[in-house]
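Exercise 7. Given the encoded structure of a 540-residue chain, write a plausible sequence.
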């Protein structure tokens, strides 16, 4: 029997970089993925699903670098997704090779609706392909995860047969996805219970769950699954992912943490056991959430559980009074427990390069020499404007550096005139990829509109601005403003990010950043989507 089948705690499998990155507009470059992977390792996740290596050379490179740099012997397991085909599996195995602990996650759909309209395969064929491809994955790595896609809408009897065969072929984790977010908590719990009772060799594998949030039930479904025997949870930071997203890691972890007494008995522990239920360092949650939101351009709604701006804010007088008298009157957890107050004032005008680098290292950023030089320059500029620099300021500078894509279009100059008696007018000078510099001007409804219109006159890539937001990094009128935008080109979304104490400059940078991402993607061609792009017809 596989000793992994009875883990003493819940395994946290993070798929922010794979399923999360499948969110419209959340595309990340290799450096951004590496920064997130490093932070996930600090957070203490057990498995990082780093991507779908067959999708594109860029995805392959990202998985390979994460395997190399984050997949160290005492680091997390690095996982790559592969459809149930030899090409996908072989490519995933190559990308994962540098990891000390590597996992291949292969999947094939099992619901009749997917079989008929997507795969165009019979149940008999799926019953053959699943074990065949698990065995093929097993020829590269010991740790193989198998998912019957759309398990939530599959015929349970057929599902049991597929799972039994996948385990017999060597799958060490059996993942049960509610791909379309259709199930209710009691149905999901019953599905896991049914699997435990009806798959004869289920003891040889860990039961994992994966689910989407279309009905807002993903986290509740997972917690019910835990009560029924699931021991791995597949989730994403801030719940980002396809459509309404995936189950949110921070919500699951804090539910298991805060309600430990309730969940302990389901893991065979005494009710009052203090042993953590996951390996997560909860004090890293807030920081991880900010990083993912910043780098993906997917903003966190203010009322989002655990990491939303209002999650620990007490607006109403009655609540404030109660909280001042005794925190527990209205708080079930402490802001400290997610690292919300870890925003120390650390550096100032006179801090040198060494102190700057040391603090960045402490925060988990290990920048290359060039990135460090650029970031230090920006730090000095900021220190001239702002007396005290906090950790969040530093993170804003560094995240902005990491987010830079090659500046094929470079904004050399921007000037705006506006005010209550002026028509907002912007003049911009942009250097094009061929080195030519063009200057143009435009009038807009406001200064940002004028800048974007002027840039559009020079950079001729049709797009539609879908979202624009400014957030201040810290309190105070000298705060850095972070601008996040999302724009649409044909059917694809692209995000852009800029940070500066001047929000007009930050807005211009964000737009150029998004345009450069868009242009790079057009040049590199479209990456494959693991679920929407048809599965290759033959397995050999
Ligand atoms: O939602 C889903 O079914 C998936 C699988 C690839 C596990 O993401
Ligand atoms: Zn999914």
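Solution.
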């Amino acid at each position: 029997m596989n000793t992994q089948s009875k883990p003493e705690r819940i395994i946290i499998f993070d798929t922010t970089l794979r399923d999360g990155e499948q969110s419209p507009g959340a595309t990340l470059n290799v450096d951004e993925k590496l920064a997130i992977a490093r932070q996930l390792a600090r957070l203490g996740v057990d498995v990082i699903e780093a991507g779908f290596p067959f999708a594109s050379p860029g995805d392959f490179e990202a998985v390979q670098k994460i395997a190399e740099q984050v997949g160290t012997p005492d680091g997390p397991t690095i996982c790559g997704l592969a459809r149930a085909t030899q090409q996908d599996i072989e490519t995933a195995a190559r990308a994962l090779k540098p990891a000390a602990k590597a996992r291949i996650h292969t999947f094939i759909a099992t619901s009749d609706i997917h079989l008929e309209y997507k795969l165009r395969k019979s149940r008999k064929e799926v019953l053959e392909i699943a074990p065949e491809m698990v065995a093929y994955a097993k020829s590269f790595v010991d740790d193989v995860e198998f998912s019957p896609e759309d398990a939530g809408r599959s015929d349970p009897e057929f599902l049991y047969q597929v799972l039994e065969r996948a385990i017999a072929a060597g799958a060490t984790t059996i993942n049960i996805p509610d791909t379309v977010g259709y199930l209710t908590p009691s149905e999901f719990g019953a599905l896991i219970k049914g699997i435990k009772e009806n798959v004869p060799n289920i003891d040889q594998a860990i039961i994992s769950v994966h689910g989407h949030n279309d009905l807002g039930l993903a986290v509740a479904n997972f917690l019910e699954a835990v009560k029924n025997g699931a021991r791995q949870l597949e989730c994403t930071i801030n719940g980002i992912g396809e459509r309404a997203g995936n189950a949110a890691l921070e919500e699951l972890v804090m539910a298991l943490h805060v309600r430990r007494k309730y969940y302990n008995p389901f893991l065979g522990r005494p009710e009052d056991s203090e042993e953590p239920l996951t390996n997560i360092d909860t004090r890293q949650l807030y920081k991880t959430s900010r990083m993912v939101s910043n780098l993906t351009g997917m903003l966190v709604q203010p009322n989002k559980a655990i990491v939303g701006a209002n999650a620990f804010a007490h607006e109403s007088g009655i609540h404030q009074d109660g909280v001042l008298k005794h925190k527990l009157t209205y708080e079930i957890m402490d802001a400290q427990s997610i690292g919300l107050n870890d925003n120390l004032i650390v550096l100032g005008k006179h801090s040198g390069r060494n102190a700057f680098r040391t603090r960045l290292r402490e925060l988990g950023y290990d920048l290359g020499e060039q990135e460090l030089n650029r970031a230090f320059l920006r730090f000095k500029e900021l220190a001239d404007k702002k007396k005290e620099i906090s950790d969040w300021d530093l993170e804003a500078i560094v995240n902005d550096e990491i987010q830079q894509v090659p500046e094929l279009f470079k904004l050399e100059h921007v000037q705006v005139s506006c005010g209550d008696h002026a028509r907002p007018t912007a003049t911009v000078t942009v250097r094009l990829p061929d080195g030519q510099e063009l200057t143009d001007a435009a009038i807009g409804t406001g200064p940002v509109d004028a800048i974007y219109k002027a840039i559009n006159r020079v950079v001729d890539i049709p797009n539609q601005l879908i979202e624009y937001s400014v957030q201040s990094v810290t309190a105070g009128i000298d705060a850095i403003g972070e601008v996040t935008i999302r724009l649409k080109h044909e059917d694809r979304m692209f995000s852009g990010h800029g940070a500066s104490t001047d929000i007009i400059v930050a807005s211009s940078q964000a737009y150029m950043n998004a345009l450069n991402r868009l242009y790079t993607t057009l040049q590199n061609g479209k990456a494959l989507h693991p679920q929407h792009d048809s599965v290759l017809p033959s397995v050999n």
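Remark. The CA atoms of residues 465 and 487 lie 4 Å apart. Students should compare their own answers with the one above.
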